[in-house]
Amino acid sequence: MKKQLQKDYLFLEPTTSICGACNERVGAKIILxxxxxxxxxxxxxxxxxxxxxxxxxxxxxxxxxxxxPGTKCKTQTKIKNGCPFDCGLCPDHEQHTCIGLxxxxxxxxxxxxxxxxxxxxxxxxxxxxxxxxxxxxxxxxYGNAEILQITGGEPTTHPKIVEILQLAADKKFKYVxxxxxxxxxxxxxxxxxxxxxxxxxxxxxYLQFDGFTPExxxxxxxxxxxxxxxxxxxxxxxxxxxxxxVSVIEQGINDDEIGDIVRFGFEQKMVRGINFQPVAFxxxxxxQKTLNRMTLTGVLNNIESQTGxxxxxxxxxxxxxxxxxxxxxxxxKIKENNWRSVMRDVEIETYLPAIKNTLSFxxxxxxxxxxxxxxxxxxxxxxxxxxxxxxxxxxxKILLKSKEQKVKYVNENFFRxxxxxxxxxxxxxxxxxxxxxxxxxxxxxKKMPFSTYNMFYRNKYKL
Length: 463
What we know:
Layout: E1 10-18, E2 25-33, E3 36-43, E4 47-54, H1 57-62, E5 99-103, H2 127-140, E6 147-151, H3 161-170, E7 175-180, H4 183-187, H5 189-198, E8 203-208, H6 214-221, H7 226-238, E9 243-249, H8 258-267, E10 271-278, H9 296-306, E11 317-318, E12 326-335, E13 338-341, H10 363-375, H11 381-393, H12 403-413, E14 414-420, H13 430-434, E15 438-441, E16 447-449, H14 450-457
Parallel strand pairs: 5-6, 5-15, 6-7, 7-8, 8-9, 9-10, 10-14
Antiparallel strand pairs: 1-2, 2-3, 3-4, 11-12, 12-13, 12-14, 15-16
Helix pairs in contact: 2-3, 3-5, 8-9, 10-11
């Protein structure tokens, strides 16, 4: 009797993807092979295509226990052509907007080789249109819009950027973020001073920060911006403006600088966190060997190896709003230059009901939400255990302090690291696209997932 031959992979589930050659929707399957996760698709015209989803199958397979039903929001289009060709949002989308992006210009003072938006030349949105888009965003979330990101192009090139930020402050978004390359912030201290006056709280600079070597800067941003980045951080620190460092990570360019970026962030007084973004292949980004691309779990593994285990892969959890594409951890300072993830000190499953469908931006809020189930308990052993767990994270005495003292304590003792992995036509998996919670607000008052907007819709909205 002949020996039966087994396939060299494990079939996990069917899905829908996009052909990397013709951009048509095609049937696909997700498989596990060699401890990695792939999407395998079959285009009638261009044949079989196999693309890498995640480098670490263990993390990928465990992510589902963090998933939860999406949050409702208003939709703007009907289901007609099928995802992703009905954006947006159509009723088939499964998640509300965690971060709403308004691109106030296509103009940019850089020509980044890895720009997802082909930014460069372009016009500016008028104030009336920007206000209309802000109001639409608020209404679409039933009055509960949380995070607004002002972006571009380079938004600081807009002649009315200060007025735009003031308008955002007046609308009372929970948080406002300014996504910038930092050039104007490094050169124009008066501009920084004016921003600080507008936002005493609820604001942060989302600062592009990809590494430390001239070679890294030139490959990702087109020129060496080392001095400008340092000066921008100095100016923001002088006026006490919170910063999130945003690092685009590309295999073979700056993936070996991830640990250095983390350590640098720890050392900066006003840096509250880091967001790592594996390169997505749209915009100016040339398609390279996508089977060897950087992935979310690739970043996690690099963080662990490059921080000497101070931060571990298992310190991160998938964020419930988009378990496929966002991972997060919060770290607590143990002593100078020594940090420990709060995830190690709690059984995180206990607190899953308290983890919201959103990108919460302060540890103060996370702690407050995690404390709620502790105070609701009825004196059981589990309750006592939860109280002990929380006391390892938050000094109980701080709960008796003023709000200002609480904020100061959290800012000085906690740090946030997130990884956001966007979808392109190569790693397209319809499940994760439907849960995309980072949305572009368009001038014709629609909301579109960031990934699908850049794949299929951006050219329609050039200014």
